[in-house]
Amino acid sequence: MRSWTVYHVDFEAGGNNPILTEIGSVEADNLLAAVIKAQALWPDEMSMTVRPAGDDSRSAQPPAPQRDTD
After folding, report:
1. What is the CA radius of gyration of the chain?
2. Which residues sit opposite 3 in a β-bridge?
3. Burial class (CB in 10 A: 0-12, 13-18, 19+), 5
4. Which of 4, 45, 63, 70 is the most exposed place for a label (fewest CB within 10 A)?
5. pLDDT higher at 58 or 25
6. Is the model's pLDDT at 57 over the cut of 50?
């Protein structure tokens, strides 16, 4: 089982570079399971992303996902 960090993505505050705010973490075997758990824990969170925990989280903010413009 692996640890995953869950972030709120704020598209409005960051303009072209959305701001990520850590909202918690989950334990899961893979990314899909981590997303499903995150959605269950934060059902009202409409803009979130899930990243592997510990991947340079202390040294830099992970890149935010790009907003869909289609």
Report:
1. 12
2. 27
3. buried
4. 70
5. 25
6. no
Predicted TM-score (pTM) of this structure = 0.71
Tokens for 57, please give them.
């989280």
CA dist., res. 42 & res. 6, Å (int)? 10
Give ∠ CA 17-68-33 in degrees, rounded to 5: 90
- Select from 25, 29, 54 the least CA-distant residue to 42: 25
Q: Quick one: 40 exposed, middle or buried, by C-beta within 10 A (0-12, 13-18, 19+)?
A: exposed
- Residues 57 and 12: their CA atoms lie apart, in Å, by 22
Q: Which pair of structure tokens corresponds to residue 29?
A: 């075997």
Q: Name the CA dihedral angle for 31, 66, 5, 55, rounded to a multiple of 10 degrees.
A: 90
pLDDT digits (tens, 9 = 90+) for 6-45: 999 998 876 778 889 999 999 999 999 999 999 999 999 9
